[in-house]
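Bug report (template v2)

What were you trying to do?
Predict the complex of my protein with glutathione.

What happened?
Run completed; filing so the output is reviewed.

Input:
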Amino acid sequence: MMILRTSPPSPFGRMVKIAADVLGMSGDMTVVAADTNDPDDDLRQQNPLGKIPTLLVGDDVIYDTRVILDYFDQLYTAKHGTSILYPGTGMETIRLKTALARVIGMLDAGILIVYEGRFRPENMRVESFVDYQLAKVTRSFAEIKAENPTYTNGATPTATDIALACALDHYDYRKQLDWRDYCPSLASWMMDFSNAVPSYKATLPDDIEPAEWR
Ligand SMILES: N[C@@H](CCC(=O)N[C@@H](CS)C(=O)NCC(=O)O)C(=O)O
């Protein structure tokens, strides 16, 4: 049995949960809540970085999100002979993985903005740091807008699709920026993703605001 250390608001932990469900592995995984702020949480013994998601498999400790997704993909392809998370071959897969790195980078910037607010006292806020991080996100949205994405993978989303859905919800949940201003067509993308992937709704953070697709 795999053990996933995560917490409900984590967009990265949510990616792992959705991927496990899409690949039919949820039954092999137990979620054990982790509190990254608590020094006594054994997460810091399991993963010296003290980060979630962290996956425990026997004596192995697997992180970060991308490595966990790679691990799931290995298990799935060994069994089924084909990949859902990283379809295609050669440069096609590399481009998909680069698009995944872009989404994860957008989210890492979002998380750093959350921590800027959490760790720095009110009178020590550094606006230029927040702007620096936000610019990574808005430049990425400009690229995504130019790519004009539509969601066409049905119940078998790629890792990049799963990450994008979790990232968009993160910006809404943390109210960091309204992605609809940067890439309006992603609203119908979300609608199609939500209709096709059942674990999207099942993994929403509790107190996220309603949207047409939630
Ligand atoms: N890029 C990492 C990011 C993971 C991450 O930043 N997780 C946050 C929670 S959403 C965390 O554990 N933060 C605690 C910390 O940075 O100390 C991944 O993909 O796993």
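What did the reviewer find?
Strands lie at 2-6, 29-33, 54-57, 60-62. The chain has two domains: 2-80, 90-202.
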